[in-house]
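pinning this so it doesn't scroll away 📌
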Amino acid sequence: MATDPLRAAFKTELATIATAAGIPWAIKEVENVFASADGATSFLALEFDGSPPFEQRTWGAPGSNLYREEGNVWVRVVAPIGSGADASGYARSIAAAFTQRRLATLINGRLIRTLAGAPSHSRLGGRWIESVPVSYRVDNLA
């Protein structure tokens, strides 16, 4: 599961990407965002999937351990159907920005590397949702 510093780093980076792409929507990271959000509002949502256990990497002096954290984040671009919002265009911009990106925010001095896939779309309760899969990897000091 993504650590709190990692969640904060993704929210900060998504805000930077959204500003650069001209996306004026709020960023949400809440449990059950679709049930609690106003159906007439467009927004971006971060959804963190579970991740495998951290993998220990050891080299050099004893105690100099790194723990690799890997996982997936879904960036949801959500707009009411018929609102005229360019959710698909925004999703493509976000996917392009997260592809092979090194997040500006560091965790314990370590870079967060990302790789994004192509967006996919779905409908839920009168909303058009573009989903951008983003994989990440960061090596944390023990």
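📌 and the second one:
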Amino acid sequence: MSRKTPQQTAHAWQSALVEGRWDDALACLTADSRSALVASCYFAAAHVADPDAASGIALDELLGRHGFKETKAKKWSVQDLVAAFGDLMAWSATHAPDGKGLDLVEKIARTTYSEFRIDGEFAYAIATTDGRRSQTQFRLVGGRWYMS
């Protein structure tokens, strides 16, 4: 998908995520947003993993394999964001306790985007999930729209 409009970007993000096309999904996000998403998924997984059970051991192995580490600037570094994101999604599907998984894909599948408005190189839309509304921001970079 070309992502020449914010609407196309929202649709591409949603479709790719629901279909498990992690590379295509993360390509819809700005670099900062990709990093923030993977970090959020890591923190959510760490919150629900039992360090002494299979879930914690599997998460530790995943983190080591992808080189998750905190930098001096208190930012997280990962060798391959797409692979790490995919593995975090797979970990959640198999190891997260019932009802405590990373339900990002399910939430995005239930999200509708509306009320798009463009203001120069930025655009905004309302994302509605299960009756809850929030604003989503987009940014135009090099002729393509990205979620930011």
